[in-house]
């Protein structure tokens, strides 16, 4: 059985946010037929699997992460027949399908919640978490991750339900075995169709501390993050479904710890195949606060990578990524999206792809798409962004101009702008007005141009995907940060008995001298990748100048 899981260790997975990927018509939102039309593009890129963010029936309060029917496709995206065609067409090209599944909560429009609402005797009442008021108000002071209190009153019964996200996303009660059986049934339905794996949204939040205490800071995360029964629940689902179908699974882990992730992704596959953690994407959170405009902490970034790379090696497995539908574009965030856009996009890609784990490429990342640089709140659609704008401006006294600058750096809409396919109107995404404004740089930054340019970011990603399959040490090697205190170079070593790989990255726009340790046997080495011309023809030396945002990958065969 274990062998069925192994394909993903050398694989690269491509994330599609369907609403923004490709519209096959003129409705202005992407659809499944649009995805099918781009499968040959993805085959050319060389990815092994597609991760689809939710395409289930949903009122789209949180862009599909509020599911109202787990067994049907949202009509905005197409039909079940369209989905079956996608599955068939992808499999014909050797591309697997990983579906996003959200089982921490459902939409309040889900039939279960609609039955439970206003009726304490409903058979579905205990599918959700209900509490009586305390002192005439909310049961606890826990905060929703989207702002405001995490409890909403059901006036008909006088009880509150828990929603860790939007009030339209009611948390499921995993203490109820009927809920766990429903989850098994849902996942089995899609696995039976031939879906190859599942990405489990905020899966480490499913178990809540049952005494529901107040938090001294009003946060509450410590009472439901990596909760008391979470490993028990995941082992139950894994044994019943994931192991039965040989599904690859990746868990999104919110505010988690290394110790928990070692268990979630343990090599015995009793819970999940791999984990997403987000600690490296909080290095530009000033004092831990997301809604601030701040530079990133480079030394902290390296320290976090070192902690997770060494901590998971031989114990678990991680997902490698910079971008997703919830994160700003990395070339705008950590690179230079103007003068050195191509160089910094390539460098950032190499610096994570040469680590141990399974890389995830988010749509548009492979062509170096940037944040759009919106200047008005009217341009934003994301519920988190608009909520936080209102809170920060109206309650915390932040000026509109300052909050717009923060959103331009931190909003989830930065990554949700339509995929830039060509230089025609709306970037070739749709024949109609897109649901979210296209970034203005699409005439220069688009897939059509990238595919025909041998030096593009696209072809650099192609090579990274190939190298993972060609060089064993990328999958198996130990990890050592060779320059943890250097203030501009990120240089790490991957080492096995037969190979040493060194990934050298300049994270800034200035030339810097690099000195490699004399112990490296450079006479046995060669450069296998660089983002500057001529480097791979050079003989490696211990001392050299790194150009702005330069990356070099050095391989030594012993």
Q: Report the portion of residues in β strands.
A: 15-25%
Q: Nearest-angstrom radius of gyration?
A: 23 Å
CA-to-CA gap between the ends? Answer: 34 Å
Number of distinct beta strands:
22
pLDDT < 50 stretches: 1-5
Secondary-structure-based class equals alpha/beta
Please explain how this structure is put together.
This protein is of the alpha/beta class. The protein has helices at 32-37, 39-45, 80-92, 111-116, 177-193, 230-245, 258-264, 298-312, 330-333, 341-353, 383-394, 400-410, 447-452, 457-470, 472-476, and strands at residues 13-16, 49-52, 56-57, 69-73, 96-101, 105-107, 130-131, 151-154, 159-162, 169-171, 197-200, 248-252, 274-276, 319-320, 358-362, 478-481, 489-495, 499-506, 512-515, 525-530, 543-546, 551-557. The strands form 6 sheets. Strands 13-12-11-5-2-1-15-14 form an 8-stranded parallel sheet, with helices on one face. Strands 16-17-18-22-20 form a 5-stranded antiparallel sheet. Strand 12 (248-252), helix 7 (258-264) and strand 13 (274-276) form a beta-alpha-beta unit. The longest helix is centred in the N-terminal third of the chain and has 17 residues, at 177-193. The model is unreliable at 1-5 (pLDDT under 50). GO terms for molecular function: alpha,alpha-phosphotrehalase activity.
